[in-house]
Design goal:
heterodimer, A: 304 residues, mainly alpha, ABC transporter involved in vitamin B12 uptake, BtuC, 0% strand, disordered C terminus, B: 252 residues, alpha/beta, Rossmann fold, 25% strand
Amino acid sequence: MINFFNTYQSLLDHILVNMLLAASQYVVLRAGVFSLGSAGFAALGAYCTALLTTKLGWNPWLSVVVGMMLGTLVSALLALPLSRLRGVFQAVATLAFVQIVLSATQNWVALTNGPMGVNSIPHAAGTASLLLIVVAVVVFLVMMGRYSFGRALDVIREDETVAVSLGISVPYYHRIAFVLSGALAGLSGGLHAISSYSITPQDYGFGLLVAALAMVVLGGRTTVWGALVGALVLTSLPEVFRVFADYRAVVQGLLLMLVIIYLPRGLADTVIAHLKDRRLRRTAAPPVIAAPVGVLTAQTRSRS
Amino acid sequence: MSTTLVLENVTRHFGGVPAVDGVSLEVPAGQITGLIGPNGAGKTTVVNLITGILHLTQGRVLLDGQDVSKTEAPDLARAGVARTFQNIRLVPDASVLDNVLAGFHRHEKTGLWANLLGLPSARAEARQMRGGAMQLLERFGMTELAEHRAGALSYGHQRRIEMMRALASRPKVLLLDEPVAGMNDAEAESLAHIFRKVAADGVAVLLIEHNMRFVMSLCSRLYVLASGRLIAQGEPDAVGRDPVVVEAYLGA
């Protein structure tokens, strides 16, 4: 067991960090914001943390907090123009943001070391602390989804016209979702930096952007659990299929296509909906399909 | 009784084509006012203009005497204008209860952080709203279906959820866009009971319908729309006999 743990510890850490990234993508998708910015915010968080610890010798955890704050701040600024855009325009705008961050990490050599990346970052985050943070974030996101905030996000995602006609201000919720997403991605990036010794610009490129999106699509985008399952599957898959190392991307793509075709709501969401339906079938009497007209009129009469 | 909703010469052009042309009507509180007309007459456009989804090209919309022509849709909803949609628009994966709860949005007072963190104030409010929602479910005979997924229910049930969501906001003005489309007479009659009660509570109800018989039995005043213009108005019986109306509906 211990042996197993040692072998897979770095994989486990990686899964936990990616869960936070997937959570960041989940928050925006749940609100119907088509943001691809998570990779960019993760890069900001990671570089901020790495540079503060290596160049200025700051405490790693304090650096993570600052990295997360940087992600939050930048997303808050970006949210202002972004909440006026919709759908594919949001996607392109956030993609442009990722490109800007990426070229900064590659070309601003004086600050970021360029393509060499930042090395010998203190390894401060162990599996236990990462797990603790993920649990805290999940509790927060479950709470968020349970009350009026989560409900408003659902209505907005499903139909903005309905949201508006219920008095829900769409730009306001879009902005908050986007800022939360920036904070979570910044946190994920910062933790990645202090759990993996070194970071390079390639870690945060187009690959990560697609991975974040794929995790949520694979797992499901209406519950937190979807993001967690997606991160777990897509991060561990390359290890499980080590034998097919050359075909890793093919296997991953194939799996994604199968899920999209046969389980369009994602793995976790499909299972959760199925369980819920089954529980209802068992507890409740079979739903009355025809309207209970007699009962209804009797009730209305007795009230009036 | 005070008049709640007034439209004055409301006009909307789509690229030069008038979809709604010089419509004036009154929807008084405590009554059900009918707006009828053949397909494509512009009925839904009128609803969209009232709720601020579309903006007027000309004319004014008055709510309790205040000009709300330029008011944005969410602000109008918060001011007490609720609607149902002709094509059902729910969150299909959410439960019936959650769909109805969404209607309480304008009455929610707890702050963002309380809601994000699930603080006691948010929980207390959620409990209170839940109670209100359960009362609505009981009124519509759907208590047993509270936890069911909205998307999995029958058409008639989904229509009811739309109405409960609109009523949850305790509106001053309620716009019903073809609420009984696709329902049989018995189902329609059970809803008619509810609409009468809502109006009797002092809500100004505007009923947009296709089903002439349903409208006749329910409305105290009727407006008839054809090709974006009002062609007749008055007491239901008189309107029903009006040759212009008969012609618009049945052809010459």
